[in-house]
Structures are given as C-alpha cells and as structure tokens.
TrEMBL record, chain A:
It holds the Pfam family ParA. It comes from the Eukaryota. Gene3D superfamilies: P-loop containing nucleotide triphosphate hydrolases. Signal peptide: none annotated. Keywords: 4Fe-4S, ATP-binding, Cytoplasm, Iron, Iron-sulfur, Metal-binding, Nucleotide-binding. It comes from Brachionus calyciflorus. [4Fe-4S] cluster binds at C196, C199. Belongs to the Mrp/NBP35 ATP-binding proteins family. NUBP2/CFD1 subfamily. Binds 4 [4Fe-4S] clusters per heterotetramer. Contains two stable clusters in the N-termini of NUBP1 and two labile, bridging clusters between subunits of the NUBP1-NUBP2 heterotetramer. This is Cytosolic Fe-S cluster assembly factor NUBP2 homolog. Heterotetramer of 2 NUBP1 and 2 NUBP2 chains. Interacts with KIFC1. Interacts with NUBP1.
UniProtKB/TrEMBL annotation, chain B:
One of its GO terms (cellular component) is nucleus. Residues 1-16 have a biased composition (Basic and acidic residues). It is found in: Cytoplasm; Nucleus. PANTHER family: CYTOSOLIC FE-S CLUSTER ASSEMBLY FACTOR NUBP1, NUCLEOTIDE-BINDING PROTEIN NBP35 YEAST -RELATED. [4Fe-4S] cluster 2 binds at C248, C251. Heterotetramer of 2 NUBP1 and 2 NUBP2 chains. One of its GO terms (molecular function) is 4 iron, 4 sulfur cluster binding. This is Cytosolic Fe-S cluster assembly factor NUBP1 homolog. Belongs to the Mrp/NBP35 ATP-binding proteins family. NUBP1/NBP35 subfamily. ATP binds at G72, K73, G74, G75, V76, G77, K78, S79. GO terms for biological process: iron-sulfur cluster assembly. Residues 1-32 are annotated as: Disordered. SUPFAM superfamilies: P-loop containing nucleoside triphosphate hydrolases.
Length: 264, 324
C-alpha cells in the first residue's frame, strides 16, 4: 500500500498501551492519559485496535460518532471543537451495540493496517494505541505497521492490576516487547485500592503493590498507581463528561504525575 | 513442542471484504480478485471437512458434559469463575467419584495453573496421549501454562498456530471418563472461539456460561458474545454477573465499584432472552484464594460469595438435566 510519508511523519510519538490480562483498565488508562495530555495543550490521537471488544467510544462518550471518508482517508471522530483530541475505533463502524466482530487473524490484520495507514490524523503530538489483551495477531500487526510506516519514536506503556494473576500476564507482555523490539516506557498499576465512600477505609481488593514489585524485578520504570474511583466508572456508564469528572477525582493527581514521568 | 503443519498454507493477507473460506462465494466473489488465496478457496480445498473433527468426536465420547466459559470483556473473572465452579463441581461429585476436567485455551494468558495452585507442573506424555495435571482426586487441568519453560515466556502466535494447539488439546489429552469438561477461553470472539466451537460442536457441546461484570462497558462486549453464540449455534446456559458490589470489611456498607447503570446483567439477560445464573459479590478473599491456588468455596463455606456459587451450580445442574 502506498503510504504518504509526509502525512505519517507528523506524529511525534506513539505510545502502545499493553497488558497481558484483560480488564485491567487499558482503555480506562488510555482515556485518562489522553485527557491528561490534552489538558497539557497537546494534540492527541487515540487509536483503538481492540476489534472484538472496542471500549474507547464509550469511554469518550462518543458512541454515536461516525468516521467520515475524505479524499485522503478516514477522518477521526473528534472529542472537541478545536479538534485536538481525535479517536478511531471499530466501534464507530458497527451498526448496533450488540454487533459482534467474529473475525480470524488475517481479517483483523487487514483492518488494523487500514487503521494505521488510512487515517488522516493531521499534526499529532501523541498517538495512543489501545490494544486487546494478549500477545497475538493484533499486536504483531500493529508492530509490523509501525515498522513499515517508519514511526521513529514509539514505546510501550504496560498496565497491570496488583494481583499475581495479572502480574504474570504482564511478565509475558514484557517478554513480547523484548522479542519484537519495543522499548518499554514503564508500568502503571491500576485499581490499586478502593477507598470506602462511607468510612474512608482503604481496602486493597486485588492485594497490594504487585505492579511495583514487578517493575523492580524486571528493571522497568514504575510509573505509578491509580486507585479505583467508582465515580469515574459511573461517569463513563452514564455518558457524562469524563474530563470534568476526572478533574475532581483522586485519580487525577496520580495520572498527572504518571504523564509527567512518561514525557520526561 | 511439536506443532503439526497446517493442512494448506494460506496467506495472511486477505482483502477487506473476504467472504470467508467456508462461504459458498469463497474464491468467487468480487473481493477475491487478486487475493493470494483465491485459487485455494475456489477449489473448495479450504472448505473440506477437517478429518480431525471425527477424531475429536471419538476421543471425547467419554466426556458427558462439555461447557464453554466465555466473556466478551477481559478481566471480568472468567478464570476465577471457571476455577471456583470447577472446585464446586468436583466437591459435589467427590462421593460418586466422578471426574471433572478443565481445559484452558487462553493461549496468550493462561491463568488457570495459578488459580489451581499447580504452577510449574510438567505434562507427561503417555501411550494414550498427554496426561492432564491433577489438582484434586477428581479434578484435572490442561493448560499451555504447563508447556512453557518459565512464567516470563510469551506465546506470540498468530491464529493458525493457536488453532493447531487447541486441536491437539482436544484430540490428544487423555481425560478418560469425565462428568464435566469446562473450557476456559480468552476474551473476544476470534480464532480461539471459532476453533473451539468448530471442533467441539460435532462432539456435542452442552452450552456456554458467559461471565460479565455489572457495568455497561462490560455488558457491551457480552452482548457481542451472546450474538456470537447465537450465530454459531451454541446454547447459552446462562450469564454470571461477577464483582457485583463490595461490602467494606470495616463498616459493612456496600458500594457499587462497577455500577450497573443499565440495570446490570439481569436486565440484559431479559432483553436478550437468556438465563441469568446469579451474581457473585466482590470479596478480596476470592482474589487471594486464586493467587494462592486454593478453593474459595472450601476455605470460606459460609461467605455470601460461596452461597452465590452454590446457587449458580444448582442452576447449571438444572440446565444440564433438562437438556439431556
């Protein structure tokens, strides 16, 4: 496929959001990072390559978004009028919310290739790529396309929850990064603890500090921990504005610190 | 580990509107023009019945009930629920000395060896196939986790290779007689799911248990999974809602960590006309039992979560009894 070099080279840095385990909050962390970068004044793109379970449209409250086709390719769905935060997901291409994408690898690969070569992002400071769990077709396809497009600057942000089960899968993801040659920016521990809204007692639902210990063991940077905030989940659920709720959340200071560490 | 060659080398590059190899239009539709697989598809070779399906059918005829554990979303607790249901079934059938088998086909992220506390065990090859690892007197497990040299090892495989291993698991594991075989799957609706249904359906698939959490983000994906089951013709035993509310251990006040803003799984079940099997509350001790490889139901027989599991088990029994 012909790739317009000029168009692609406008993306300054690509972050892949990875985790071995599902449901650790990759999409939620991707969304929080995107908003933190947006608030810093950057131009941000979010690409959702989870074809069988796209959550990104719901996270950005853009469920009714439509991808338009222009002469030079697909136009992302924008969160804001300024068009500083654009989103691409297969969710925008499905007719109804119960539609299933039942595809084997090769079909998924060609869709990802289209997503990575045919979207008109324009100038971007950061492109965040949200991936499905595992180390399989989608991940290999993303890497192949990154290489063939010649993105110069890319790296992975790994997300885990604190329990052993999840940490084990992230260890596999680290091996994956080493094998395919993706530099690792660091590890984020999500759902670290839950502060009871009634008595303020903090319970560690999924045991403690697994992400931090893993980062030390595997020589990765520990980027920080994000606590559980039911208000954030509720806001996604009810289709409220994520950014407004995020700013009031105890997660916000954590995600800002994490963002600074990632950009440092 | 030996890996059998694919029957026919197919290229990974397919056109966007590929009709699929099993379609009547395979190799003949307008989208097939220029596809490297066009000739293979047009010849009908790719759509030949797989001879292994008969072998699998024969091999699994001593397995009475075959159940898939599915969920659209990852991390909703498929493996946890699969593990605890297996422990409960094993305890239920202990006196009758009937066997429960568990097959983990989450090839990129096998969690069950940890949930059952049998990490680092080695698979033995016998004359009659691969021997599963025994967790208990009447509970055995097969997982790719046993075939990896270390915890860090990643299985970076594309679809066809994963399918080959799933086939080997179904054809070559020496389960002997089983009352139940539970198959734990990875999240999504892709290669692993299509393959397991393709191989197991002719051998008689009892049905699928779908696991979700209460919030809409998870239900979104579960609706897709239900659509998948209906499309490929897998009966749905029911939906389990996991992580339903959390009772603070200090003040006992219950919080909805994953709020059911659209009515949760029960309402979705009504809308989509499938059984609701029950809801399991969040209990940090469940996670701890999984990290330590213990049976939660045995360790905490009086907890509300155990009662929830028992209710779910009896509903599964009821479904199985009426479907036979």
């Amino acid at each position: 496929m012909e790739v317009d070099d000029q168009q692609i080279s406008k993306i300054k840095k690509v972050f892949l959001i990875l985790s071995g385990k599902g449901g650790v909050g990759k999409s939620s962390v991707t969304t929080q990072l995107a908003f933190a970068l947006y608030e810093k004044g950057y131009k941000v793109g979010v690409l959702d390559v989870d074809l069988c379970g796209p959550s990104i449209p719901k996270m950005f409250n853009l469920e009714n978004g439509v991808i338009n086709q222009s002469e030079s390719g697909w136009i992302p769905v924008y969160y804001d009028n300024e068009k500083r935060l654009g989103v691409i997901s297969i969710g925008f291409l499905l007719n109804s919310k119960s539609d299933a994408v039942i595809w084997r690898g090769p079909k998924k690969n060609s869709m990802i290739k289209k997503f990575m070569t045919d979207v008109v992002w324009g100038d971007l400071d950061y492109l965040l790529i949200d991936t499905p769990p595992g180390t399989s077709d989608e991940h290999l396809a993303v890497m192949e396309n990154i290489r063939s497009i010649n993105y110069s600057d890319y790296s992975a942000v790994l997300v885990t929850t604190p329990q052993n089960l999840s940490v084990n899968d992230v260890r596999r993801e680290i091996t994956f990064c080493h094998k395919v040659g993706i530099p690792i920016t660091g590890i984020i521990e999500n759902m670290s603890g839950f502060t009871c809204p009634n008595c303020k007692d903090c319970t560690y639902l999924f045991t403690r500090q697994g992400g931090k210990i893993l980062a030390e063991k595997s020589n990765c940077t520990f980027l920080g921990a994000i606590p559980i905030d039911p208000n954030l989940t509720r806001c996604i659920e009810n289709g409220l504005d994520f950014l407004t709720t995020l700013k009031d959340s105890p997660c916000y200071s954590n995600i800002k610190e994490i963002t600074d560490k990632i950009l440092a | 580990m030996s890996q059998e060659p694919e029957r026919q080398e197919m290229s990974q590059e397919v056109p966007e509107h590929c009709p699929g190899v099993s379609s009547e239009k395979a190799g003949k539709s307008s989208a097939c023009q220029g596809c490297p697989n066009q000739n293979i598809c047009a010849s009908g070779q790719a759509n030949q019945p797989d001879p292994d399906i008969e072998l699998i059918k024969d091999h699994l005829k001593t397995v009475k009930n075959k159940i898939l554990i599915l969920s659209g979303k990852g991390g909703v607790g498929k493996s946890t629920v699969c593990g605890q249901i297996s422990y409960a079934l094993a305890a239920h059938y202990e006196s009758e000395n009937k066997q429960i088998g568990v097959l983990d086909i989450d090839i990129c992220g096998p969690s069950l060896p940890q949930v059952f506390g049998v990490q680092g065990e080695q698979i033995h090859q016998s004359g009659s196939g691969w021997s599963p690892i025994f967790v208990d007197e009447n509970l055995s497990l097969m997982s790719i986790g046993f075939l990896l040299p270390s915890l860090e090892d990643a299985v970076i495989w594309r679809g066809p290779k994963k399918n080959g291993l799933i086939k080997q698991f179904l054809r070559d594991v020496d389960w002997e007689e089983l009352e139940y075989l539970l198959v734990d799957t990875p999240p999504g609706t892709s290669d692993e799911h299509l393959s397991i249904v393709q191989y197991l359906k002719p051998a008689g698939l009892t049905g699928a248990i779908i696991v979700t959490t209460p919030q809409e983000v998870s239900l979104l994906d579960v609706r897709k999974e239900i659509t998948f089951c209906k499309k490929v013709g897998v009966p749905i035993i029911g939906v389990v809602e996991n992580m339903s509310g959390f009772a603070c251990p200090k003040c006992k006040v219950e919080s909805q960590i994953f709020p059911p803003s659209t009515g949760g799984a029960e309402k979705m079940c009504e809308e989509m006309d499938v059984n609701f099997l029950g809801r399991i509350p969040i209990d940090p001790q469940i996670g701890q039992c999984c990290d330590e490889g213990k049976s939660f139901i045995k360790e905490f027989p009086n907890s509300p979560a155990t009662q929830a599991y028992n209710g779910i088990i009896s509903r599964i029994h009821k479904f199985v009894a009426t479907s036979q």
